[in-house]
Design brief:
The chain is an alpha/beta fold. It has 9 helices and 13 strands. It starts with 5 loop residues before the first strand and ends with a helix.
Length: about 300
């Protein structure tokens, strides 16, 4: 029996309360929620959970506060099979929290809180553990940690992926060149390049990047550069309930499919279907489908 592919995901971690409402009215207002849930998430963390649910083995590296919430995060991740030993307690600080309001069209309002006293030093990272994994995936919310880990992964011959979401351009300029797989959001790609067209921006980045460059564009699917030309896979047409974490599910699914030896086009189809199905379910990353559901949807699509 083959061992599952292994990934380390590094980034910000948060306890998030998600509320579903009919619509998000302008303030001042009060609106009753129709559903609610609480989830441990964050961009890289949600990607790791999708990677795990779809058949891989993931662990996370992130900073947590010196509080009971941190222990609850560890227990929640462990219950889903995620290795939480890479959660590092920063003494005298609070763990991150967020509230998310999702409307009937699946769009959302996100209100995060991150303790500004949290130490940004990456000195505690267990970089020696990279020798036991197949891929390091980083988001852009902790640049100091991501840059240190990405450079160590390259030295050890471990594949790297960066989620190029919206961030200050200097942060993206530090991190994206260190990615074997530079997988942007459409907004993050345009912020990185200063351009206004996704395809033009992809070609511009690919001209300076040695390996894979692509952009996840929500309902418009995934675009990437292949042999100097733009390639594209469409998303499924679905009734959208909640778009929260859809891009993160895409990253986790894409990473797993690539590591399993699928070509880029097949991996993009797999990831687009996983992200599309997630959008049909309330609860952020909790809506990630199973592998069987993704494969069934792929069969139906073909």
């Amino acid at each position: 029996m083959k061992h599952p592919k292994r990934m380390v995901a590094l980034g910000a971690i948060c306890t998030t309360a998600i509320f579903q409402v009919p619509e998000i009215p302008p303030p001042p207002a009060k609106v009753l929620a129709t559903q609610r849930c609480t989830v441990v998430d964050g961009m890289a963390i949600s990607a790791a959970c999708a990677f795990q649910k779809l058949g891989g083995q993931a662990q996370v590296w992130a900073r947590v506060g010196d509080d009971a919430d941190a222990q609850a995060m560890r227990l929640a991740l462990a219950s889903e099979g995620i290795d939480p030993k890479g959660l590092f307690t920063v003494k005298g600080t609070q763990s991150s929290h967020a509230s998310v309001i999702v409307d009937a069209k699946g769009q959302r309002l996100v209100v995060p809180f991150h303790d500004p006293q949290v130490d940004t030093s990456p000195s505690w990272l267990p970089l020696q553990d990279l020798s036991n994994v197949d891929l390091l995936h980083c988001d852009v919310r902790w640049p100091e940690g991501a840059e240190t880990a990405l450079r160590a992964a390259r030295e050890q011959g471990v594949s790297t992926m960066v989620d190029g979401d919206v961030a200050p351009r200097p942060v993206l300029q530090r991190l994206m060149p260190l990615a074997d797989y530079a997988v942007f959001s459409d907004a993050g790609l345009l912020a990185y390049t200063g351009l206004h067209n996704v395809q033009e921006a992809l070609l511009t980045v690919a001209a300076q990047h040695s390996q894979h460059v692509g952009a996840s564009c929500g309902e418009d699917g995934y675009y990437w550069v292949e042999n100097g030309h733009i390639a594209h896979v469409s998303a499924l047409q679905v009734d959208v309930v909640d778009t929260l974490s859809a891009g993160d599910v895409f990253h986790g699914a894409f990473a797993l499919a690539v590591l399993e030896g699928q070509g880029i086009a097949a991996a993009a189809r797999f990831a687009c279907v996983a992200a599309s199905l997630k959008c049909t379910r309330f609860g952020g990353r909790l809506g990630c489908p199973s592998r069987a559901e993704v494969l069934a949807a792929l069969d139906q699509r073909s």
